[in-house]
Specification:
Number of domains: 1
Largest sheet: none
Helix content: over 70%
Number of helices: 4
Keywords: Membrane, Transmembrane, Transmembrane helix
Strand content: under 5%
Radius of gyration: 20 Å
């Protein structure tokens, strides 16, 4: 009886710690993606259509900062459900009996697929005006993963 209790408690503790780690990891990836993807998007935007800073430097910089904050807010709103699914996916992958190397690849592929799916849903709903803009944002999210 006592020999059965210790492995059971160990399994429950290990499962609990794994759940906490998957939450922290998925949250870190999601928040990194939300904060870094707009920067990569803005860099891409400036490379394709550079702003004219000579006319109004302060106005241009404040517009860039405002655009960055708006994109972060929109990414936060639109990707919340994706993050919840990502968290569940990571948890299911970590408790599976797959080898560690394959788990890393499975989590990576799941993140790319979920980011792309979110972009496709937003594209079909007509958010962000053009598909080119949305494609740039989705690519920025995928790069962060």
């Amino acid at each position: 009886m006592a020999g059965e209790v210790i492995p059971c408690l160990f399994f429950k503790l290990a499962t609990y710690l794994m759940a906490i780690n998957t939450f922290a990891y998925s949250l870190k990836v999601w928040l990194t993606s939300i904060s870094i993807a707009p920067i990569s998007f803005l860099v891409f935007l400036f490379c394709t259509d550079p702003p004219n800073f000579e006319k109004d430097l302060i106005g241009s910089l404040s517009a860039i900062i405002l655009m960055h904050l708006v994109i972060i807010l929109l990414e936060f709103i639109f990707s919340f459900i994706t993050w919840l699914i990502f968290w569940l996916t990571i948890y299911l992958i970590t408790i599976s009996s797959i080898q560690t190397k394959n788990k890393i690849w499975a989590i990576f592929i799941a993140g790319i697929c979920l980011s792309t799916a979110t972009g496709l849903v937003m594209s079909s709903a007509g958010f962000f005006g053009s598909d080119y803009t949305l494609l740039s944002l989705t690519a920025g999210n995928c790069v962060c993963i």
